[in-house]
Amino acid sequence: MKTFFSNTISRFNFRRLISLKIIIPVVSVILVVGPILITRAVVINSYCSKSMEEKVVNIRSQCNMLSSIMSANRYITQQNDPDVAARIEQMMFTYSARILIIDRDFTVIRDTYKEDYGKTIVNKNVISAFKGKSFTGTNKKTGYIDIAIPVYAMNASGVEGVIYVTLQDKNMLEVREYLNDIFANITLVGFLISLLFGVGSVFFTIIPLKKLTVSINRINEGNKGMHIEGRKLIELNRVSQAVNESLDKIRTMDEAKEEFVSNVSHELKTPMTSMKVLAESLMAQDCAPVEMYREFMVDIINEIDRENKIINDLLELVKVNRAESLLNISTVNVNEMVELVLKRLGPIATNKNVELIFESFRSVVAEIDEVKLGLAINNLVENAIKYNTENGWVRVSVNADHRYFYIKVADSGIGIPANCLEQIFDRFYRVDKARSRETGGTGLGLSITKSAIMMHKGTIKVYSKENEGSTFSVRIPLHYSTAGGEA
Ligand code: ADP
Predict the structure, then answer these.
(1) How many angstroms separate the alpha carbon of residue 121 from the centre of ligand 1?
(2) Most ligand 1 atoms within 8 A of CB, residue of 263, 348, 407, 430 to mutate
């Protein structure tokens, strides 16, 4: 038993179980918080891009329009167009933007912030615009947008000025902050829930599993009578149940083994004791007559025969119970096999004045181990003769259908009491010990028979009525297969 549980436990890797305590909460948190963070990055990033893109498109189209009007009105050189001035003011208010108008000498000729008026601005954006290439620069982090649009001269003498717009997309910054706050809250809630779930899972699974291991260890230490408590989780409860069932089986097997050993010792001791008593009584007599020696010797030989029979039956039982791969399967004519058994037992039946009747309903050929099954049928017929009455009969029949063959052994004997029917297949069980002993029974015959039939994936049933007789019905598949068993 110790090895069974030690093996089961060694299959669990405890280091892995312990690390699962950390892995489960960490994985739960990662699985929940990870997707939230990714969603946050995608949502905020795409919102910022979209917001700034929209603004850039609008401002650029306004600047392009302004650039055309400036060209048409020669605003750069004359700077006296009120319409242009009004449009610049309007743009400034609409976008909270700073608008600079720069002339060909890189001098600021108009600044809506009135700070850099008359100053020179030379930067790569302005230079790019003077080269005829509009410039747009955005910075999602700070929300700054820079746009430089060339203003062409009317006489097609190239770029004569630049509209330079700078602004900060404050609306985008505010919404971004708002979204950041929302996602921060969602992340916090997700973190707490997943952590709770992770810790809960550890609490409900790993800890009970550890407790279960402790219980199993206690059983391994020799606490055989212990039962594993049921668990709240269905899965763990199933494990507990399975362990308890295994424990019950092991206990039953242990008990059966102990009982068997004690029965064997008892059975083997009985003839020994008789022999000892017989020998000692002879020794106690100073001049015992030869007849007495003869008589006691006959008794001693009988006891030796009995001891021999018990040992032979035990060896047979062990042989029959070995792995089924030891079955020597061949195609056998069942009718002939049964007839041979009856022929062998004929003299015993004649001695008891019991009539042996053989009924063959059809010729049966099956895949069986002839020796083992022959022995099983022999035991049934021998019992039917042994436990019969004077002038009784034993009827053995063989029949078959497309899947099974059937052997029935019916007798007109003493029958078996209903309350003993279940035990008669147990080792060493005898309904009437004295009678069985008289007839040379060991109580092993039926258990050898049952084992042999089970190995053939067959069944055996008994019907009996006291003082009327018994019928043993055997059913065995015609074709032997290693897979599956018979009910
Ligand atoms: P035994 O060696 O004692 O015959 P078995 O295992 O063959 O042992 O049988 C177990 C017990 O079942 C017998 O002791 C007997 O009491 C009972 N039994 C078996 N077969 C019959 C039968 N045909 N009629 C009456 N009793 C039977």
Answers:
(1) 121
(2) 430
157 has a pLDDT exceeding 80 = no
Better-predicted residue by pLDDT, 479 or 432: 479
Lookup: tokens for 259: 């009982």
The predicted model gives 163-168 an average pLDDT of: 94
Point out the ligand 1 atom lying closest to the alpha carbon of residue 430: 14
Q: What is the mean pLDDT of residues 336-353?
A: 93
Confidence grade of residue 12 (pLDDT, cut at 50, 70, 90): low
Residue 10 has pLDDT above 90, yes or no: no
Q: Is 472 within 8 Å of 462 (Cβ atoms)?
A: yes
Considering only CA atoms, which residue is closest to atom 23 of ligand 1?
A: 384
How far away, in angstroms, is 71 Cα from ligand 1 center? 126
Pocket test for ligand 1, best of 383, 414, 431, 460 (most atoms within 8 A of CB): 383
- Let me know: does 51 contact 172? Beta carbons within 8 Å: yes
Closest approach atom of ligand 1 to CA 409: 23
Residues 220 and 5 sit within 8 Å (Cβ to Cβ):
yes
Cα–Cα distance, 417 to 429 (Å, whole number): 13
pLDDT in tens, 55-64: 999 999 999 9
What is the model's pTM? 0.54
